[in-house]
Every structure is written in C-alpha cells, then in structure tokens.
Amino acid sequence: MDENTIPALVEKLCRSLSSGKSSETSKEYETKYKLALQLLSSQHLSSQTHETEFSIVQSIKKLLGTKERYQDARKFDELYARLTASVSDNHQHKFYLNINCLHLLQSILKNRKAVLELMYYLALNPPSAANEPVVRHSFTLPSLASFTTDTTTMVKTPKNTEIPYSPLISLSSSKKSAPQTTLYGHSDVSNQVLLREILYAFQGIQGQVFQWDATHENLHLKSTVKLPKALKQMVLSLVELGWLFYKVQKYCESPKTESTCGLAARAFAAALQEELSEYYRLLAVLQSQMEVHTARTGDSVGVETQGLTFQRLLVWTKEPKARMKLLAALVEACHGQRGGALASVIHSFVLQGNATLKTVVLKILVQVCRPLYEMLMLWTFEGELRDPYGEFFIGVNLAVDPGSLWNDKYYERSIMVPNFFTQEQGHQVATTGKSICFLREICLDKSPIPGLNQIRRTAEERSESLLSLDWESIEEAYSTASQYLLQVLLDRYHIKLHLCALRQYLLLGQGDFVNHLMKLVEPELDKPANTRMSRLLASILDKCIRCTNSQYDDADVLKRLDVRISEPSQGDSGWDVFSLDYKVDGPLGTILTPEVKTRYETLFYALWRSKRMEWIMSKLRHQQLTEGRQLRGLLEVQGVLHQAQLLLSEMIHFAQEMSHYLSFEVVACAWEQLSVALRNSKTMDQLLTAHEHFLQTVTSRALLDEESKDIRDHLRGIHEAMLQFSQIQERLFSAAILEVEKRQGKSKSTIESFLPSIKAKLCAISASYQNFVQTFLFMLSSHSDPNLQGLGVRLDFNECYQRKDSRLSMSLTFSYRRMTTWSFPSQQH
Asked: Whole-model pTM above 0.85?
C-alpha cells in the first residue's frame, strides 16, 4: 500500500498512539482507526441541529413518550443521570480501570452530546428490512429512503493496490475462509464477505475476491475463487456497476484545462462529479445498512433472510445502474467534443422515454450550456465575443481588413451551433452582435442602441439557461439592432445617394455627362495606352463635370469620382484601359468591397464600349450627310457610297438597339428593383442581398456572365467590324474629296488606283459583319434569358437575317418557346 495515501497515514498515526502488542492494545487501535475514518468520511447525521445537550435529552424523552414507551423513558432518564454522575466520580474509580479503558471512557464522556444525538437520530429512523416507501432522487434504495447518513469508509486507492485494513469494511481473515453453503450452492466465500467485496467493486477497488484487469480496465473474479454458476452470474451483473463507475470517474479525473477542452467540457466534468457524489451517498447507505446488520447478527448465514442480500442489492442497484449506464454513454459520446458540439451530443440523449434519465440529462445539459449562455448574451446585447477557446458558434478572423468586418471578420461555425437551435435562430444571434460591432468599429457610433437594454433585462428575466432562451427577446433585439444600423447607414452615411452615383457615372446613366465626356476624351484615348494621360484625363473629367448637370450633384459624390487607368497590354489603346473610379471608405466600403468594385469596372467597360460604338456610328452618319454632298458629281464612287450607306444603316440600328437595351432594359429596370428593395429592407443583410441581386441581374443581362461567353465573343467581333468599317469610310471619303479637289484643279485623276481595293475591303467587312450578326442572333434566340431572346427579335425586326439563315426560324418553334418560357408571335416556316 502506498505510504502517502490517507488511509495509510491514518493507520500509522493510530498505531503510534496505541503502543504495545496485547489484545487490548489491538482493540484500542481498531477503535481509534474506526473513529478516525468515520470522522474523515462522514457528514452531519441529521438535518436537525440541537443547541444544548439538555434539548437532545428532552427530545429523546418526548419521542419515547409519544410512542407510549414510558418505562423506556424512565430507564433512559436513570441511565442519563448515572452517565452525568460518572463525570464527578471518575477520579474515584480510575484506580480500578486500566489506562486503555479509562481513555475510552473519557472519549465517550467528552463526546456525550454527539452520542446522544446519534441515539436520537436512530430512534427517529429505525432501519427496517422492507415495506418502506420508495423515495426518488439521484441514487436511492427503495427500502432505505430515510437513511441519509453519509458515514462511509470509502477510500479511493489506486486500482492496482490492495485496499487498506479497515474495521468498518474488513474481511474476517486474510486467509482463505472455509467453504460455505448458500442458497445458490457450495461457495468458497461467505455471503457477508462477498457482499463487502461487491461494495468495494462498486468503487472500482480490487480485493480478495475481485482482481483489476488493466488491459480491459475492469474487475473480474480471481481464478482461485469458486462460486456457484447462478451466484457468479448475479455477482458479475452487480460488478458491472463498478466498471461503469470507473469509466465516468476516469473522465472526471482526467487532466482538463480550458485551453485543451474548453469551459463547456469542464462544466460537463463538474456535472458528472455531482452525479458521482450522489453515487457515493448510495454506497454510504449500503455500507451503513450492512454495518447495522453485522452489529446485530454477526457474519452468519442468516444474513440471507434480512438486511443486505444479493437479491436486494440487485434490485436496489437497478435504477442506479441504469443511471450510471447513461453517464458512461455520455462520456463515450462526448469524448473529444467541445463547446456547442458538446451541447448537441448531450442534447441528443434527452430524446428518450425514461423520464428520470431525461431529467438527469437535462440537469447536466443546463450546466454544460452555462458558459455558452453567457457568451450568447454578451455577444447579442454588447457585441463582445468572449470566446478564448473557440467554443461558441460565432468565430472571428482578426487578420482581415477592417473594411471587411461585415463580410469576413465574423462568421458562423455550423459545427458549433447546438442542435436545439434552428439555422434562422443562429443567424439572428450572429447578425445582432455583428450589427453592434459594425456600429461601434465602422460607423464609430458607440452610443447605446435605443431600447436594447430593456430587451436584455426582459430576456434575462425570462430565461436562465440556453435551453430556456427567450427567443422572442432575441428576435426583438435582432430587429432593433438591424433597423438602427440601417437607419444610420441611410441617414448619416447616405448609402442610397452613393449607390445612385454609381449608377449615374460608373453605369453611364447620366446621359449628358457621358456624351460630353466621350467627346472630350476621344483625342486622348485614340493614343496608345502606354502614353501618360492620367493627369490630363483627370482635368478633362473636372471640365466635363462643370459643363454638365453633374455640377449640381452632392459635393461628396463629386469628390469621390475619379479616373482610373488599368495596366495596359501590348497594342492597347486608351479606350481599352480607361475607366471611371469611385472612392469609398467607412461603411460604404462594406457595400463596395474590392470585389464589387471590380464587377462595376467590368460593367463600365462593357457599357462604355457599347456607347463608343453608338458614338462612332453617329459620327459616320454625320460624315455621310455632310461630306457626301461634295461627292455628288463624282459618279465613280456613288456605288461604293451607296453600299457603305446600307452597311452603316445596319450597324447604326444594331448599335442603337444594343445601347438602348443595356441602358434601359438592363440597368434602369434592375435599378428600379433595387430602389424598391432598399425601401423595404429591414436589415443590413437584406440591403447587401438586394445590391448583390442588382449586380447579378445587370451582369447576366449584359452578357458578362459565364453562360454568355460565346455570345460576348461574337459581340466583340461585331464591334471590331464596326471599327474596321469606320477606318474604310474615313479612307474612302478622304480619297474621294481629294479626287474632287484634283478635278477642280484639273489635275490627273487617281481614283482608279484606290477604288477597287476599297470596294473589296468593304465587301469583306460587310460579309464578316453579317455572319457575326447572324450567329449572334441565333445565340440570343437560344439563350435561356427571355430578355436576350427579345433583344434578338428587335435586332432582326424586319426578319432580314431570318430569311438569310434558316436556323433563326427553326429556333423559334412552339416547342422551343415552351422550353424557354418565352412566347413569340407565330412564324411562317
């Protein structure tokens, strides 16, 4: 036995106090050792407390009187008088007492009050063998409900060491006992010894009958012990309780720190320890029952008929065993879990039919959820995330930029969301705390949200744990914080004004500004992209603002508007790298993140290119109307001019329809939907969702999504054909006007040298352009978006291209229209 254990130290102390080798000295040692262990392991015997010894005596006599035991009352009074008188006579008789008896008598007289209180308690609660009501609490005995004493000599010792000698629970001899005959047959161990060994086994302690198996971590019968088969099966069934206890105790005693397992796991271990305390109380009751019977009858076969028997022990431990099985199952299932995941595992054990075990699980779950409840209340009403060990279902990424607080800094960890929360409830909790953090860190608004403190007081009054959380108050806090944040964004930071500015300038919704800017920047953007033009373009932008209605816009909007020049590639012109930029900061940066600004830049390039094609076609038409008058007398070029006019008419129709479609059917319609959504938004997430839907709608309908990649490539081919036609017409009119001037000066004509090449190039451009358009229209008619199908119909309003390409008529059959959920007028095939 380890010399540092409490029983070993107590035994050493008692032996030192009881010197000698006589039998009386041995009895004195046993008495002291027994008394010491009782004092170390016992609690108060009764909930009743008596101030004086006299009050205890009066209570005993009154109790005997109520039971009509008047002779016993008189006898008790006489005995008590003799006991008190012995104090004064003690010095007269000490000559006739040996020293050991004198010490024992003195110890009894000194503890006279405690002895009387014990007698009174035993009179109040006489032990009975049966017919007592069943009282349900943690670990109970059906027939010992009133026996609440906690006196037990349970000593925790290492599993691989023999138990220390104790007079309270001791085998009659260290030698093998004589064979016994029991109700179950021939046995090497007496019933009394076996019962005591079973009580040790309930604590996971080995003895003379059971041996600890370190490999399987359980107790089994020693090979030298022979028991009848029926008795052996019953004993092994009883000992299973000790194995379950060992599993639970092992989890409780395993090293646990907050950094490795978290606060919830430590709370789980504490809750299990409380359940084990109830189990220890059960063992104390069983041991006390055995001691009372042993004091009456001794270690005899008669123990089978009264007191603690195998059958009674089996019945009395049935419910505690089921309870311990539940705790062991919890320990097994919760191994390695932490935080909200641990709460979810424990909550899964609530769904069972046994009401008693369900109550046990709920009690444990309440304790486990206590740290999570405090984290939730702190996050929901103060926006503070106090989760040092990663147990809450809200996580934080401290490495992100402050502008990405709403989108990236705080996130939900789905694995830590308790399974008794819905997804919507978890999102409400996350959004409420995030709104408070956003107000404090981004909006720099540290004032308390109106009404939130009152909601918190209501929630704390109505709920005491995570299981009884008042979700009405949580929803009210979510709504209050979200609406206050949205009000701050709209009223103080004018989010809608800035979104309108993005539509007007980056999405080219301000018509006079766009046309004037196109006119002013054209000479500069025609230059190669590697030319330094940033400062010049910035000054042109300021001039354009002063010369249009943009000068009346908000000063904060105009201050944020700027020019951006992208990194040029080989052969790029200024048109390929120029774009407008809108500077953002503070809360506006949450909506216009770098990713969102990149999407706006992509939309600007597409819309800017479409406006440029319309601008170029308008210039070419103006050139044909003005300079064409000078070429009326030049009959050689009239056929080429007519062909150019026809091709230009097709291109103008295409450019205008595309520009009209992008400006009005795409941007304007999507903006109207966004405006309605902004008016109806109640939370920050709804605002962001509405803006995201706006961008997705514009991107897909502007042929900038992944599905429209092939259509976008053909549209670029059409634009390239328009640019080539512009160069050919410029060359044609320059050469024709030069020819007119030569003929007026009677110089030699040179028209025959350039006219054939211009005709050939014009025919090639016309054929290429029409092929691109026909394929483009076919792709539009086959697209899943009805708006793009309608665009194809308007581009071929007179069915000119449909007559040239039979595929266009085949794709508009009734069956295809039904598949694409778009209806066209019936076509003649």
From this structure: no
